[in-house]
Amino acid sequence: MVLADLGRKINSALADLNKAPVIDEKVLDGMLKEICGALLASDVNVQLVQRLRTNIKAAVNVQDVGAGINKKRLVQKTVMDELCNLVDPGAEPYKPVKGRANIIMMVGLQGAGKTTTCTKLAYHYQRKGWKTALVCSDTFRAGAFDQLKQNATKAKIPYYGSYTETDPVAIAMEGVDKFRAEKFDIIIVDTSGRHKQESELFEEMKQIAAGIEPDSSIFVMDGTIGQAAEGQARAFKEAADFGSIIITKMDGHAKGGGAISAVAATQSPIIFIGTGEHLHDLDRFEARPFVRKMLGMGDMSDFVEKVQDLQLDQNKNLMKNLEAGQYSLRDMYEQFQQISKMGPLSKLMGSIPGMPADMLAGSEEEGSKRMKRMMCIMDSMNDAELDSDSSLFYSQPTRVIRVARGSGTSVHEVEEILSQYKRFQGMVKTMGGKDGLLKNMPSDP
Ligand code: GDP
Fold it and tell me: How far is the CA of 276 from the centre of ligand 1 (A)?
């Protein structure tokens, strides 16, 4: 079961609560059965599912809950909290420190997406202003250095490796020493993912770690491996004692459950998930936003970060307006313009809370066409209309007809845009303002 299906199943079990006139033992058991069934079908470890079930039952003792308390909300909140606990071991991941070299060692099996993830992570830090470099210490696989070199060149990230040196420990140490001397902030070391024998692989990892003394080791795991994830994560934890996890290939048919079990097995936090083959396909992972998104509830902080990543400093006005909680039709238009320059559209749109599913439906190309059509309709609006909060259209409905005619579309389509805008505007109001999310965004690593 892919994550979106899991989210839908859990959502529908929760929604069934609203249909029930009273929440009694039977209704609660029915809901738990559906949720647990969905988690098991997603490969979540059976003991974890059992624990979640017991915890929810204990927290929501239907007999004990006083009449004054809204039982449905309590059940929903408890389910949400327990789902978050499932993916959050409560351990703090390593945070790079300014003013010195932070050495990050990446471990994981060949094919997991380790080399790709090294570059994605380096690219992530580089965009956040850290001076970042890559070191390839995989001497086992022919072509490993070439692959890293290619990726690094594309992302304009300095790299180190060798075609002739066969000792991975020597290369790793040389690379780290070189970049440390050049005052790099973050040095990411890629390691081999395969050997003739697993024991050799683990031995090599230990030697490299002893040589470079990493500040943090990250285990890169393929999100599509289902139940096998747990055993693999345990083995790597024992050998490399990694501090955190990146789960890759969560864009395809990943059954999130395997990854979730792995987290619980190693008590290590997931810090990012890979969502595609390209450089920017790396999403920060945090338990609550992740669960909210999985349940189709959208996530504000994700959206805010993506907006910031759009380098809106090119568009300072928009950022200022967003922060003030103000948002005109023109702001929406300009945002569309920015987004269409950015790609991949669906990723960004998907992180916008309230974005209707039909906007996201279909291929990347269809989504992009739909947005261009909206922009084309807005091209027929005049300045006063664009700078308004759309109230002009409601006080003078003939304007809607004029825009529809001008753009060769229908009144219905123009109205769709206006209601879309209303949704965005509502969202911006909650994000902006004195206590809004935009004001409270951490200047994170
Ligand atoms: P390594 O052997 O662990 O270094 O793995 P690679 O970095 O060579 O990746 C193996 C394959 O997985 C490549 O084809 C990558 O493009 C692909 N890959 C890596 N990460 C992701 C991801 O998040 N999503 C998808 N769809 N493919 C990925």
Answer: 8
Residues with CB under 6 Å of ligand 1 are 108, 110-116, 193, 248-249, 251-252, 274-277, 281
Tens of pLDDT, residue by residue over 253-280, are 666 667 777 777 788 999 999 988 888 8
Q: Which CATH number fits domain 3-87: 3.90.1300.10, 1.20.120.140, 3.10.20.30, 1.10.8.110?
A: 1.20.120.140
What are the residue boundaries of the structural domains of the chain, listed by start? 3-87, 102-292, 300-440
Q: How remote is the CA of residue 442 from the centroid of ligand 1, in Å? A: 30
Domain 102-292 has CATH 3.20.20.70: no
In whole angstroms, what is the distance from residue 227 CA to residue 382 CA?
57
Residues 433, 375, 346, 149: what is their CA dihedral angle, to the nearest 10 degrees?
-100
Residue reference for tokens 């911006």: 428
For residue 313, the SS3 value is: helix
Convert the pLDDT of each residue in 344-387 to its tens digit.
555 555 555 445 445 555 555 666 777 788 888 999 999 999 99
